[in-house]
Amino acid sequence: MEINVCLVGVHSAGQRRLVLASLFLVLAACAGNPSQKIVQQQGFISQVVAGAPFLHQVYSNAMSGDTLHVYIEGDGRPWLGKQQVSPDPTPMNPLMLRLMASDSEPSIYLGRPCYFNLPDPQCAPQWWTQGRYSAEVVTSLSSALDYVSSGHKRIILIGHSGGGTLAMLLAARRSDVVGVITLAGNLDITAWANYHGYTPLALSLNPADEPPLGAAVAQRHYIGEKDSVITVEMLSRVIERQPAGTDLKVIKNADHACCWEETWVDLLEQFEHSITDEHKITGQNPPGN
Question: Is residue 134 within 8 Å of residue 110, measured between CB atoms?
């Protein structure tokens, strides 16, 4: 496994020293995380990339090509209980990293702020609880993506659960995104909170309240037939407002987290064929949204 620290956006010497001096703590903490086994088995390149204002863990398969697949994980473990905030939201079930392992195209796993125990002085619990989909989080993800997507002309965003929330929010703010795929995406955080009786995420953006994405962005949204976390009814209001051709498909035998690996290669190939046929990808970037 190759490990790099990319201090993009870190301008002061003091900030650089803080990150470099703390890197060994990151490696030690990550060693016990399930994601590291996948990273080592697949030979992914590991980087710590500075967005604005957060640091981001990024894994890459180091392949070259015009179109980059960007995987965004779900919320992980923001809470340990109803009243106890988790000190570390890093997911113990890195579904998106496992899916990326079966992707033969240029791909990166774009880590969310404050995940993977990064030595980031900007981190506080609000960024993985109430503000997990905030403007600050989206802006920092986009800033990090600017760096790691260098050399690629087009981006397809792929998000699971809360990663789907962020994929939709990112797509609305970038001109290089040609496709969005969500798996059990939380596309209406108000409906989700109401359904489960959760406290609303007052510091977060809600894709359901955003304007629809532009027609140049192909969309495919999947949900498991056994999913009890996200329901078809939650997604309907968002899907209906999107451009013609936006699909919502129910996947048999899948729930919120289980069994996506069995169908992922086929689902991804189907989407890529549809985006090539319907959106006629050429060497040009699509217009802004």
Answer: no
